[in-house]
Amino acid sequence: MFALHGPTLTLRLPAPADAPALLELAGDAEVTRWFSWGPYTDVDQPLAYIARAADRCARGEQLDLLVEHRERGPAGITGLSEFSARDGRCMVGTWFGREFWGTGANRESKAIMMRLAFELLGQHRLGSYSNPANERSTRALLGVGFRHEGILRDWHRHPDGWLDVNVFGLLREEWEASDLARVEVRVEGVPPAAFTPPGALT
Ligand SMILES: CC(C)(COP(=O)(O)OP(=O)(O)OC[C@H]1O[C@@H](n2cnc3c(N)ncnc32)[C@H](O)[C@@H]1OP(=O)(O)O)[C@@H](O)C(=O)NCCC(=O)NCCS
User: Fold this and answer.
1) 52 vs 106: CA distance, rounded Å
2) Is 31 in the pocket of ligand 1 (CB under 6 A)?
3) pTM for this structure?
4) Ligand 1 centroid vs 69 CA: distance in angstroms?
């Protein structure tokens, strides 16, 4: 069991039993509008995603967590990916069902993911992307302390072609100095074994 408990949210590994809730949340085309996938139309799609996420987690490629509001139930997914063990960095990405937008769930979940990345996994840098047309996501990242670092051209492949992305970064010392580092997070268990702090430079 690995779970991270913030003031109102619990982040934990997704399980097949979460598929109906994910279908409901990401069955909304507004939620998946900026993604290369979705909206979900059948429970087999979130079930396949949950199986893929478990494989990627076992391989140390991507650590996706279900965000669960302790009173309102599942809210969405947030995950760490693109790990560089050499450089101690990874990227964070998030989606929530629309009823959780603007509720503070994003801020709390980012505080929890920053704790996971910097403290539990020993990362030095946490990055994120947004579609330059996705102003809500861009503003949300700036609002939790990420710095806009530039635009990567034709970075992301979608069904209708290659898309530019905004790239953002947050360094460990910037997180340590921020209010988000003060959010209470209780850690239950240990992160999956495939995710370990960066080793010595060779
Ligand atoms: C991106 C996401 C996780 C952010 O969570 P959220 O709860 O909506 O974010 P917040 O409400 O904390 O912040 C959104 C910010 O954008 C602003 N905003 C909202 N709509 C906007 C718009 N159309 N144009 C510009 N800014 C907008 C809000 O005012 C807020 O800024 P502020 O804090 O300075 O007032 C959530 O919207 C989501 O799941 N979206 C769908 C999936 C997605 O796009 N994920 C990101 C992929 S990069």
Assistant:
1) 24
2) yes
3) 0.96
4) 18
Q: What are phi and psi of 122, to 5 degrees?
A: 65, 30
Torsion region of 121: left, alpha or beta (phi above 0 gives left; psi -120 to 50 gives alpha): alpha
Ligand 1 neighbourhood includes 136 CB (under 6 angstroms): yes
Residue-wise pLDDT tens digits, 82-106: 999 999 999 999 999 999 999 999 9
22-79 tens-digit pLDDT: 999 999 999 999 999 999 999 999 999 999 999 999 999 999 999 999 999 999 999 9
Query: Fold for domain 3-188?
Result: Aminopeptidase (3.40.630)
